[in-house]
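User: Fold this, then the next.

Assistant: Folding the first:
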Amino acid sequence: MAGKRGAGRYCALWMSGGGPESDIVVSSRVRLARNLRGVPFPHRAGEEQLQAVLGGVRQAVEATPSIGPTEVLGLTGVSILDRQLAVEEHLTSPQHIQEPSGKALVVNRDRSVCIMVNEEDHIRIQAILPGFQVDEALRLASATDDALEETVDYAFDENLGYLSACPTNVGTGLRSSVMLHLPALAAVNMLGQVLASVSKVGLAVRGIYGEGTEAVGNVFQVSNQVTMGRSESEIVAHLKAVARQIVDSERNARSAIMSDARSQLEDRVYRSYGILTNARMISSEEALKLTSDVKLGVDLGLIPDLPPALLTALSVDIMPAHVQRFVGRELNAWERDVFRATLIRQRLGAADPESAGPATGACKEE
């Protein structure tokens, strides 16, 4: 399910790094919530109705070549591990992979567009891209939405807009978000102040997997809360303006640290790098925190020989399901910590210019 890496797998496009402002903006995402007219929302629908929705979406995708090559993955036919891989790569939500009957995930070739079928709504179209590309993500999601609407009859009210299972999604049904890496703001104790100000202007701050999840490794998801009464372009413009302010604040904090506390920062960065390149056991939470330090060091030129994209992919590859995928079998928590440490040492060691050979599991271009 996940994009391939290493032998036979290619990573999701957003994991390849790059894109505008990619040293701070990890990814940009736009999600559109849609439902079928005359069918109860998924939490009220029966099994036959869910299967009918799934069949209708499958038929619409197959009848719409403009969407491009896609793969329709019924979640009942996908292993628990593969479902968790999709969550770790931000292709679907933790809630979607629970009770998989009647649910599916439609993905395009590079995983820049995916469609969750029968999550909270019948259809959730998502476009996710590397860096600060909210406008382009909106274009991708809207193009997919328009293509599906040629075949599918959406639940739409002339006054309310698109109808959804959650009232906060009624209207445009649009959620736009950016994933931000903010280690400098955390280091200078300004993170709480900045994120609190975000909440006052109608945006939400969540963890790396969205609502109900924690922020780990100084990575935060900032998204709009209001979908009714504003156009899609207005919602995106507001998110971009606030995100730009956060990016500028992070840049200022990085400059201040480099000017006033460079030695302390270098010590922190290289201590973290030393643990990652030598540890024999490490949890995913600790690894993400240390990777955050190292990425900051790379972005500021303190560690010149590590490509930033390597660290973006590594932040996903060290998660539990991905570690088990690389090993090829189910692991207990202790074994995952051991193999995770091995994977990190191999990946960072292979990135050393004095080390021969490609990084094990590194993202590749087809």
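Now the next one, as you asked:
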Amino acid sequence: MGARWLILWVGFCLCPPLLALEPQQQRVLAQIEARLEKAPQMLGRFEQKKTLPQLPRPLLSSGVVALSRDQGISWRVQKPIASHRILKAAGTGDDVLARQIAVPLLQIFRGNFSALDGLFHVSAENGDDQWQVKLTPKTEAVGNVIASIEVRGDRDIKQIRLAEANSAVTEMQLLELRAVDESNPQFEAEFSAEATE
């Protein structure tokens, strides 16, 4: 699995766009990106449901998410079992989430969907109350890991649905996401030390 992630990560960093977005989709995507609040630091909560084909019931978890333009994403699971990951483009660790979708997730949280056009077909709809973006792989290397990513929101990203190639589905709800100052004590605590493996 590590070799597969390395191929995917190198592809994200080095692969040029395979197809440019159509002009209408470029306009819609620009409208969506303009709606999103893009503060340098944001803090909120998440609720996550992961459905695995081999398990009868989904796995539920919840915790704190912190987004930093410079430091990446802090993903702290508080329930049912405490864990902490800091997702960065250059660091994957051994966690499945971090290993498989660190780079696209970073771009999604930054509201930079157009940056993903190199390896994903990007389909966007912008309504009065809500927008949605669907990403489907353009390459076999990405398709071997990710089947699709669907993102919904308004001024903030509210929901991310990740369908993996192995039929696992992860649904993330982002709650109370708000801009904070970098000196916010809770925000500082999220990035005060590297997450343990």
